[in-house]
Amino acid sequence: MSGAKTRNIKDAKSSKATALYPTRNDIPEDQRAKLVALMNARLSELIDLSLAIKQAHWNLKGLQFIGVHEMLDGFRDGIDAHVDEVAERLVQLGGTAHGTAQDVAGNTSLKAYPTDIHKVEDHIKALADHYAGVGATVRQGIDDTSDLGDEDTSDLLTGVSRTLDSNLWFLEAHLQEG
C-alpha cells in the first residue's frame, strides 16, 4: 500500500465525508479524491437510470407493450453492468461506492422519474430524457477524468457513453415516424 493514511474526502455534491483508502495506484491522492467524487455522482445517475428503466418496464401499457417491455430488459442488463464497472473503478481508486437508495436519491442529477404514466410512448419519452441527461454528464465525466490524468476511467466512461447513446437511439427511433 502507499504510505497514505485513510483520509476523509467530501463527495462533490454533498457534505457527506467518505474514507479514501490507501492504494498502490500511482494517481496522486488529491486527484483520486476528485475522481472518486465524480464517479460516485455518475454511479448515482446510472443506478437512478436503471431504476427508471425498471419502473417503465413494469408499468407500460399499449400496442407496443411486448416489444418495448423486452427491449427494456436488455437495456437494464447493460446499464447494470456499467453500474458494477463504475462502482468497482471508484473502489480501485481508493474510494467507497455509494449505491444505497438514500445515497442515489441525494446524489443524482436526474429529475424524478414520473410514476403516474402508463402509455408506452410516455415512458419512451421519459426514458429518452433520462438517457440524454446521463449521457451529458457521462461525456463531461470523460473530459474531467482525462483532465485529472486518469485515462483508464475516461475509457471506462467512454464505453458507458456508447451504451447510453445506442439505447437513446433505439428510444428515439420509437418516437420518430418514417
TrEMBL record:
<dbReference type="Pfam" id="PF00210">
    <property type="entry name" value="Ferritin"/>
</dbReference>
<dbReference type="InterPro" id="IPR009078">
    <property type="entry name" value="Ferritin-like_SF"/>
</dbReference>
<protein>
    <submittedName>
        <fullName>DNA protection during starvation protein</fullName>
    </submittedName>
</protein>
<feature type="domain" description="Ferritin/DPS">
    <location>
        <begin position="37"/>
        <end position="177"/>
    </location>
</feature>
<dbReference type="InterPro" id="IPR023188">
    <property type="entry name" value="DPS_DNA-bd_CS"/>
</dbReference>
<dbReference type="InterPro" id="IPR012347">
    <property type="entry name" value="Ferritin-like"/>
</dbReference>
<dbReference type="InterPro" id="IPR008331">
    <property type="entry name" value="Ferritin_DPS_dom"/>
</dbReference>
<dbReference type="InterPro" id="IPR002177">
    <property type="entry name" value="DPS_DNA-bd"/>
</dbReference>
<comment type="similarity">
    <text>Belongs to the Dps family.</text>
</comment>
